[in-house]
Amino acid sequence: MQTPPSDKEIAIFRGLLELLRQGADLASIKASDIAAAAGLGKGTLYNYFASKDEIIAQAIFFHLEEHFDRIEAGVRQAGGFTQACYAILDYLEQQGLSRGINIHLLLLGGAEPGCRDLMEQGRDRAAALWARLDALGRALAKRGCQEGVLQPQEPAYVRAVVISTLMGYLSAFCPLADQTPEALALAKRHAYRLLVAGLGGRLQE
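RE: above sequence
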């Protein structure tokens, strides 16, 4: 079982994320930059991590797990299937506009070989994230079936529909996309409609 990060490790992860949100280039960020953003001395970083690559790899996992925690909490608090779907889409919109989601794509795409190797060693954590996404899709589908909105589907198909819908929705937050309030509201409605239609349901908005 993964040991929860310490307060200082979390500060380091958040420091790296903040640098990237401010537009810093991943390759040019130094360990001293991360330490300063975290409010720590450079030497403190090496009490917890062996290299900058390890910080990046662990930060990716930490922030993705944090996203899942918040999404799952929002779904639990939602009143029904439609509300649960919009809770997820609202959260992704918030993160997309604040570059919270794009940061992870940047990290994954710009990581150097050493970082990718460390992430490869974290297969168990990656598998756990996929399992959480799978469980989220099944929970949504079950709620939709119970409410008469959806028709029962094979789990693998549910997973494919959920992933395709969410990835398509995230494309609305690419730098070249139209991000006016009207365009984002339309993208959100389309994502909900695609999810319901993909799972053989009837629309209710």
